[in-house]
Amino acid sequence: MCGFTYADAGVDIDKKGSSVESIIRLLSFRRKGSFRALAIEGHFAGGVEFGNHVLVLSTDGVGTKLLIAKEMNKWDTVGIDCIAMNVDDVLCIGAEPVAFVDYIAVPEIDDNVIKQVAIGLNKGAELANVSIIGGETAIMKDVVNELDLSGTALGIVEKTKIITGSEIKIGDKIIGFPSSGLHSNGYTLVRKLLEKNGIDYHALPDGFEKKIGEILLEPTRIYVPDILPLLQKFRIHGLAHITGGGLRNLIRLQPEMEFRIDKPLPVPRIFGYIQQLGNITAEEMYQTFNMGMGFCIIANPEDAKEIVNETDGEIVGEVRKGAGVVMVPQKIKYTKY
User: Fold this and answer.
1) In terms of CATH architecture, what is 31-161?
2) Which of 40, 128, 159, 232 is the 20 to 30 Å CA partner of 70?
3) pTM for the full model?
4) pLDDT per residue as tens digits for the range 293-319
């Protein structure tokens, strides 16, 4: 029997990608004169030339993870997710995130909820070392039914230190960094499966030490303090934030090379629980979730070895001749509950 898919839950990644490509084709105008846009379309963030530097921008939201926050009546971590999804993307260009603005849309104001969201935003800003310099709270009862949270991060990098993936070479190693859980992707599929199986977010399945809802609300890891120092010390060839689309995010760095994963990181057991609920194939899991690896660095073998010695990263594969992402068939190694 064919297992449940993200598309079955209402999110067709391929259709979304096609739609985004259509939008990009229509957004063809580029500013004339100074402060020109940097030609790095399709990457994790965009840039604008600013003298000898490039200002880097990324915008994203928390997604349907917010519906779980509502079910659990716990809003003090989603702000961390909002900061993380943006600053980790900015980091992928080799830029240091420096500032952030948030956008909250609500059908009506709930002072306690807004306060809890702000607590998370402030904590995320502290972890990423960015200043929240502005934001907007919009009351739009006729437009939104639930709270929505998104934001934009600003980063800066010297022109000579931009990392786009153009330096990636055959033989380079792929270093994977552990995620803190699902981060902020795949929640539509997770919610549908829990609903389909009649599982409450407050349930505590055998072997789990936390309620399902609490595990799902674990905030997205902010990689900035771990990765940023490495950019000053090593010649990094590529950086990838593993979010929606899973391992396919690596293709953004160098579409004309093959990223071969043969030693994937151990996968947190929550992913195994989700896979069992929907009888989901391994391929579908790895193209929907981060599967325990939330960020990747591409570097030459010598630097990769040193990076692993200094961080919690592990070499998970290498770059080869070919195209796309190849996951060497093997049984998924889940960690204990």
Assistant:
1) 2-Layer Sandwich (3.30)
2) 128
3) 0.91
4) 999 999 999 999 999 999 999 999 999
